[in-house]
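This is your field. Please look over both lines of this record.
***
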Amino acid sequence: MEVHVFSTKATLGAEAARQGASLISTALNKHGSARIILATGASQFEMLSELVKADLDWSKVTVFHLDEYIGISETHPASFRKYLKERFVEVVNPAAFHAINGESDPQNECSRLGALISEHEIDVAFVGIGENAHLAFNDPPADFDTEEPYIVVDLDRACRQQQLGEGWFPSLEAVPEKAISMSVKQIMKSSAIICTVPDERKAEAVQKTLEGTVIPEVPASILQKHPRTWLYLDQGSSLLLNKI
């Protein structure tokens, strides 16, 4: 894993996007197409705003959605489908965007998306790390073993509190308790991973992810085992690290 620390979120986002765009370009040159995974949330704002500026043939890039709440509409302010469509899909017009529909039957949706994502390797996964060290919506203790590409998960209180704290919901009670998430194993199957993690509120999770044992109680710690992961931090999120 390569770890990079920057002084500002803007620089962090720009460098993460630059590396991600380079990896997508390599895939396009090699295969004539590329397949990527996109995360959402406040941690991805700066990275996505730069990634859409990349000089790439987006018409040859297929995008997979990382996670989505169960039971909220696409018009809801917290909808991750809405987030990605407004910030990415409608800007670059990719070849395809396989969104997660959290309003349909969850198991059928997991099966539908699982079949699509299993057709070919993912070239680049853009992810973040939660305050509870979740990876996608795989809260601790995460399932490291399931082979299912998409799964239904329960969101723990810490995860739901983060969503409230970031301003996506008016109250904790309004935050859904379940979601559809890409599984840990499916994320780890990606050829390359760009992980963008700004803000001091993520510092403890980052420290456990990088300097602790790989355990389901720290879901993002599994990234230690991926040979082509680039982790982008700022001064806040790297605050507790001993090895930087």
